[in-house]
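User: Can you model how arginine sits in this protein?
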Amino acid sequence: MKKTSQKSKKSQATWGGRFSQAPSELMLKFGESVSFDSALAQFDIQGSTAHAKMLADVGIISKKECADIVAGLQKILKKIEAGEFEWNEALEDVHMNIEQALTKEVPAAAKLHTARSRNDQVATDMRLFFKSATVEIILKLKNLLSNLLDLAEKNINVYIPGYTHLQRAQPVSVAHHILAWCEMLYRDVERFQFVYDGANVSPLGSGAIAGTTLPIDRAISARYMGFVDETDTPVVTGNSMDAVADRDVFFEFAFACATMAVHFSRIAEDVIIWNSSEFGFVRLPDTFTTGSSLMPQKKNPDSFELMRGKSARMIGNLNTLMLLVKGLPLTYNRDLQEDKPPVFDSFKQACMCLDVLSACSVDIEFNKQKCAEAVSDPLLLATDLADYFVMQGVPFRNAHHMVGAIVALSEKTGVPINELADEEIFAICPNAKKDWRSVFNLERAFEMRKGIGMPNLKLIAKQIENFRDLI
Ligand code: ARG
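Assistant: Here's the modeled complex, given as C-alpha cells:
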C-alpha cells in the first residue's frame, strides 16, 4: 500500500514537471551536494544578484522585481552567515536551496532562473570562489614570506653547510637557505596569480549548453560580478559548450596547491633534518611540537611532518580532478558535481599549512654553536681550493683531480685538509703558492662569491630587501 502511494506521489523538484514520481530517498542521499557546496552560498548569491540586475537592465524583469530579488537574496545571505539558514539535502544543492528559500519570500524569484541553468550557475560560482580563494592564499603567502624574511635577516651571519645528496657540499648561510625557500614560495604567489587570471572569465549566460533565445547581455552580468580585465572591460567565455564543460581552472588551482604543498614538504623535511639530534641546527617552538606518550624525552616535529604528509593529499586531489574529467563527453555530466570536495579540501589544507608554517617561522631558533661546528668542516671548501688552483693556471679538471688527491691524503693521514704541510700540497699541485691556506676562510668564501644568486652577504641583504619590496 505504502509503495503505491509513494509511487503516485508526484515529484516536487524544480525540474519535476515531466516526472510522475519523486526520486527515491536513496537517490536524494546519493545525489545531494549541499552538504559540501553550501560553502558556495556567498558566490551563488553574488551570481544571482548580478543575473537579476542584468535581467532588469535588458528589460526581461522589472526594476521592482529585481529589487525584491536582490533584497531577498541579501536577507538569505545574512541568515546563512548567522548560521540560521536551514539547508535541506532533499533540495540537492546550494543553488536549489537558495532559490527555493527565496521563492517562499519573493514571488518574483520564479523569474530569477530565466536564461540560466545550474550548469552555467555552478561554473560561475566556482570561478568566483577561485578568485576569492586565490586572493586569500596570496595574502597568506605574502605573510609567510614576510616572516621568513625576518628569520633570514635575524640569522644573516649564521653559516651552515649546504647539502647535495644530503652530504656536506659547500658553505651557505641560514639566510641563503631561507631565501631559496622564498624563491619557491614566490613562484607560488605568481602561480596563484595565474590561476586568478584564468578564473576571471564569466561563463554566465551560457545556459545549460547552448545559451538562450532571450535577449540577455552577458557583459553586463560579467561586470556586476567583477569579471573585468585590467582595462575594465568585461571578460566572458567564448563558447557556451566549453563554458559548462570546462574544469581547467579547477586543475590549475589544485596544481598550484599541490605544487605549493610540495614546497612545504621540502621545507618541512629541511627543518625536520635540522631539528634532529644529529644535526641540532634548530630548536622548534613547543607550541608546534608534540611529546611522546611513551618516551618522556621526545619532542617531535609533528607540525612539519604533517605538512610533509598533507602534500600527498593535495597531490591526490589534483589527481582526482583530472581523473574525474578525463573521458567525459561534452558538455555537463553529473560526474562534475564531484569536482568540489577535492578543490575545497586543497584550499582548506593549503590555508592551514600556510598558517602553521607562518606561525612556526616566527619562533624557529637557530643553534649558532651547532651550525658553526658543522660549517667549520674544511672539506666544505675543497671546491674553493680547486678554484684557487685554477687561478694559478691549472685547468679545472686537473685541479679537481689534485684536490681529490689532497682529500684522500687528508683522509689517510687523519690530518685536516687545511693543516697538511705545504710540501705535501706543492707535491700534488706545483702551481700552488704559500698562501694556499687562505682558501679555508668562510668570510673569504662568501666575499668571493659575487655573482647574482650567490651567498655573498651583501647580495643576500639586497635580496632580502628586494623580496620585501616585491611583497
Ligand atoms: N550540483 C550540481 C553540480 O555541482 C549543479 C549543476 C547541476 N546540473 C544538472 N544538470 N543537474 O554539478
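A couple of observations from the model: The two ends are 69 Å apart (CA to CA). Residues 118-154 form the longest helix (37 residues).
User: Helpful, thanks.
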